[in-house]
Every structure is written in C-alpha cells, then in structure tokens.
Amino acid sequence: MAERFVTAEAAASGTLRGWARLPVAARIALIYVAARVVTTIFFLLAAGLSGPTSRFGVEPALGQLALGWDAQWYWLAAVSGYPSVLPVNAAGAVTENAWAFLPVYPFLSAGLGGVLGSWGAGGVAIALLSGYGASLALHALLRDRLGDSAATWAVVFFAAGPLAAMFQVGYAESLFLLLLFIALRCVQRRRWGWLYVLIPVMGFTRPGILAFALFLGLYGIHRFLRRRSDPLPRREVVHIVALGVLGVVVGFAWQVIAGLVTGDAGAYLATELAWRRNWIADASGHFVPLEGFVQAAAFWFTQWGLGPWAGYVALVVLVIGITLALLFVRPVRRLGIEIRLWSASYLIYLLLVFFPQSSIFRLLLPVSPLWGAFAVPRSTAWRLGVLALALLGQWWWIYNMYALGNTFWQIP
User: Fold this and answer.
1) What are the residue ranges of helices labelled H in 148-290?
2) φ, ψ at 53 (rounded to 5°)
3) pLDDT 10s digits, 165-189
4) What local confidence, expressed as pLDDT, does residue 384 receive?
5) pLDDT at position 6, please?
6) How far apart (Å, rounded) are the C-alpha atoms in residues 145 and 138?
7) Cβ(115)–Cβ(123) below 8 Å
8) Residues forming beta bridges with residue 94, ordered by sequence position
9) Torsion over CA of 194, 370, 109 and 409, rounded to 10 degrees?
10) Could you identify which of 133, 217, 320, 339 might form a hypothetical disulfide with 369, taking C-beta atoms 3.0 to 4.6 angstroms apart as the criterion?
11) Angstrom distance (rounded) from CA 266 to CA 272
12) Cβ neighbours for 174, distance < 8 A, ≥ 6 positions apart
C-alpha cells in the first residue's frame, strides 16, 4: 500500500514538473482549448434545450448560436455598410441600426471570411484566435505581480469564466480584449510607441477607448505624485499626455463620422439611445451622463417590487463598495496600479454612459484582469471552488441567453 502511494505521488510530481517545463504559450493553449471544449458542450446542451419560444427555435445548429444576437449587426455592417439615412419609428425616434457597431471587427471578419468561405467563419475564427491571444496577454500582464502559478489560474478563470462564450461567437469582445491587454502591458513596461497604433485600432473595434484615455490621465497623475521615488522623465510626460489626447480624439471620432455620413450630428448617440428605449421611454432623446444608471436603479428595483429609492441606495452602496475594494482589498492591490486604475476608469465610464441590463455582464469583460485577485490565494480548494462557480456562471449565462433568449432579461 505504501509503495503504491509513493509511486502515485511520484507520478503526480512528475506530471507537475512536466507541466511547468512546457512553454507558457503551450500551457495557455492547453487551458484555452479545454475551456473551449467545455463551452461547446454547454452550447450543445443549450441547443438541445432551445424551444419554440426561443429566438433560435428548436434545436438550432451551433452556427446559428454563434452568429446570433449582435453578430447579425456586425454582419450587416460588413455586407451593407452604415446607413446614410437613419431609420426612425412612427414617432420619429431613431431606431436600432448599424452605427452602434464599430467597423474593425466586421470588416476584418469579412476579409478573413473571404478566405474561409463566409463572414461567419471569419468572425468566429477571429474571436477564437483573439481569445487565445488575450489569454496569453493576460498571463503576461499578471505574471510579474503575482507569479506564474497565480497568473495561470487567472487565465483559467478568464478562459472558463461566466462570459467565456464570447470567445467563440461573432462578437468583437475578444479582439478588443486582446488589444486592451497588450495596451495595458505596454503601459506596465512603459513602451509608449505601440500605443499610438493600439489606441486607434481599439477605438474603432468596440466602445470604451474614452475609458482608456481617462486611465492614462489618472496614471499620469499617479506617476507625477510619485515622481521622487519613481522618476517621471519629460519624454514620458509627453507620451502620456499625447496618448491621452489621442484617446479622446479617437473616442469621439466615430460620432463625428456618423454625423458627417448621415447629416445628423447626434446620429451615434441617438442610435445608442434606441436600445435604451426598449426598457425606458426616452422623452428627450438626448444623452445625459450618469442618467442611465440612475434610471436603471429605479426601473429594476421597481420591477422587483422594492421601489426606486431602494435602487438609488443600492447604486450608492455599489459605487462605494467597488471604490473601497479597488483601494484597500489586498489581493486587488497586488495586481498593480495599472490594472487598478484601468478597472476604476472603465467602471466610471460604464457608470456615465450605460443603462444596465442583461448586457452588463458582457460589458464587464474589460475588467477581466481582476480575475488575478481571485487567483492570489494559494489554496487549491479555493481555486477549484472559484473555477466551479465560474463554470456554473457560464452555463447559467449560456442557458439564459441562448436556450431561452426570448425576453429583455436574456440579451447577451
């Protein structure tokens, strides 16, 4: 019995040593492929449970699920371009249209799709490959601060997390995450030159580049305050300021382009507000910062029978709680100032511009580096528990968005 135990322990030790000797790219690839197999199984289960009330119908094919929801808008932008005349409803309000979807991903998918045989094949291939690249970049982003083991576990949580389905559907999220993580790594290593390319590409891939501009501003202030212990050369000041300005310009460029093409300066914001009207009647038709979260707090808590004031209190508590976590929770502090400032900047951006509904889970993907905080505890039981909850969350999300997918609370 003792010999058998020693033999098993030696075999396990040898396996771990073999795993550790693998190149990082190979280890991340194995994790990523395993995660994609699990997600595919979840999609197959969801397809089997999809019924006549689902937007996908009875037992849809995997391709139908992969190209559902917003993937159709990206496809439309690629094949038909962007409308020069905004569609309106009977009341004269602008309705949903392709201007809400930025052009890099749909046209890149069309280019690759020309080789692979269809736009959908190109779009899913880009999502899959970008997800792997984002996993590699996330590991690099966290490794110096947390060590290889914790960084690898953070990648496991990321690749198998509640929103992991985004890595194999026709959405721009995984491409944006790849670009974002590389950009954050550039800031970590103070390699400013690459950001002059990354910021415009990010800005035309998915909304959120204004959050990156805010992050650069906060990062610059942080470096200025710490300049005695961490010198801030004039060259770096110029880069940080110039890149921040570039982020702001790129952040508003799509609005300007939409206005020039349609002849309506408010075309882009009116388009974004069209989705909000699915929940809240928009009498003014004008965008007001922070209004979305305030309206949503009242709307959702009234739906749940608690009244608007409960929503307002919950919103304040949420903001305070997240602020305290980013400032004082030790595992979060270990992630480094770049990840903490980015997370704060992006959450501020969401607070200012978004109306929270079921898409809020997807829109939280850019703060995925915070998975590192969950990977810091070295207890195997803790890490396996986090992974189990992540997989449970992934199935819950896929089941609701793809197997059910028929109400306003089931939109990815």
Assistant:
1) 148-159, 173-189, 195-203, 209-225, 234-262, 267-276
2) -85, -10
3) 999 999 999 999 999 999 999 999 9
4) 97
5) 40
6) 12
7) no
8) 88
9) -150
10) 339
11) 10
12) 126, 127, 128, 130, 131, 134, 166, 167
Show the low-confidence residues of the chain (pLDDT under 50). 2, 5-10, 12
Q: Could you list the beta-strand ranges (E) of 279-391.
A: none
* Rg, Å, the chain Cα set: 22
- For residues 397 and 254, what is the distance between their CA atoms, to the nearest angstrom? 31
- 293's CB contacts (< 8 A; 6+ apart) are 315, 351, 354, 355, 356
Report how far Cα 25 is from the mean position of its chain's Cα atoms: 22
pLDDT digits (tens, 9 = 90+) for 10-53: 454 556 677 778 899 999 999 999 999 999 999 999 999 998 88
What pLDDT score does 9 carry? 46
Contacts of 319 (CB under 8 A, 6+ apart): 351
Say if residues 166 and 173 touch (Cβ distance below 8 Å).
yes
Cα–chain center distance at 16: 32
Question: How far apart are the C-alpha atoms of 40 and 69, rounded to whole Å?
Answer: 18
Kindly report the length of the chain. 412
Closest CA to 145 of 320, 333, 371, 324: 333
Instruction: Label each residue of 57-79 as H, E or C.
Output: CCCCCHHHHHCCCCHHHHHHHHH
Residue type, 31: I
HSE (side-chain half, CA atoms, 13 Å) at 180: 31
DSSP notation for 271-311: HHHHHHTTTS--SS----TTHHHHHHHHHHHHHTTS-HHHH
Question: Nearest 5°: phi and psi at 162?
Answer: -55, -30
Token couple for 221 = 């202030």
C-alpha closest to that of 282 among 267, 290, 292, 297: 292
